[in-house]
Specification:
- This protein is about 35% helix and about 15% strand.
- With about 375 residues, it is an alpha/beta fold.
- The protein has a 6-stranded parallel β-sheet with strand order 8-7-6-9-10-11, sandwiched between helices.
- Strand 9, helix 10 and strand 10 form a beta-alpha-beta unit.
- Helix 7 runs parallel beside helix 12, helix 10 crosses helix 13 and helix 13 runs parallel beside helix 14.
- The longest helix has 19 residues.
- It starts with a strand and ends in a 50-residue tail after the last helix.
Length: about 375
Amino acid sequence: MRYLLFSYLPVPKAAERRRGLTISGLYHWAQVFSGEIGAPPLDSLSDYDIVHLNFTGGSLGHVHRIAEACRRSLHTKFILNVDYSVDLWSNNIPFPTLFLKEIDQVDLIFHVEPRGAALLETALKRHVPVIPHPVDVSSLASVAFQIERQPILSVISHRYDNDYMEAWLLAETIRQETGVATALFLCNANAQQDFVDRVLPMFSGGCVWSDYDDFIYRIAESSVVYDTASLSTFGRVVGECAAMGVPVVCNDSCFAGRELFPETTFPAHRADLKLQALRDLFTVPGFYRSVSAQATQRVSQLCGYEVSRRRLLTKLGLLAQPTGEDAPVTTVNGSLGLNLGAPESTDGFHKIPSVLSNSDGKGAL
């Protein structure tokens, strides 16, 4: 099966495999199908079985041209994903009527989280499934095996809002109570230098995100991650943390948080619950183990390579719908219809950081 991720843009450095890692998300589809990334001549698209376009504002004019080229072959399927957060559509989709007309030409449309899929399905009056982008679970798990986990609470701030204030207030409280270090990772390579100079010193450490490999290795040594995202997203970083067994506290607008870390995912306004979850993760070893184990057990079933491949091919009608014991069932959140189940084991790399080394549940620091 020949797969093409159609893109006029050069592949970002973070999507190139170095030290065995590729940035999670869109570019992993090419890994899943051993496919290609690029923009070959349109008259050659009929040579592929799947042509995949990631929708952005800049790709609006390409959809009908690619659709016409793919229709020249009976076997070529044209698929399109929308992974831009619904909360930002007004900024990225200035012509919504044209947007809907254009994307309705493809064989399969999917979104990476339920809110976006539901809105598209309502507008288009056709099925729009939830299909998260893949996460390279095995490679990330290998990283986790190599890294000694440190008593660090790492905060992830995203480029859309540069939010850090609530996270700092909660992290500073935990630092004062337990003595753990705090770190801020600004996932915004274009952050203004005066903002960086003002905010980073508020934490024990951290940096502006610039190198994916370095970012993953630094997250892998963290005991706990706090993700600040408040938009409706899949939560790529949350999926990566789950693969490495690093517990995450986040808002319930994050789909991966709801599915992978249900015990530590809360409504945005419940700072009290988020603080207590952080406190418990740093002081109750059994809770830490349970949260870590549940996430690592679930992540392969949510967005691992094989599950992602089968889910996409099934929605395209290229694989039979599972039946019997393999049939999907409803999750706690009723979102994907997957049987994510309960953690099977707390063994492996569900490492307890040194701050939790005391068996009585009190922090070691």
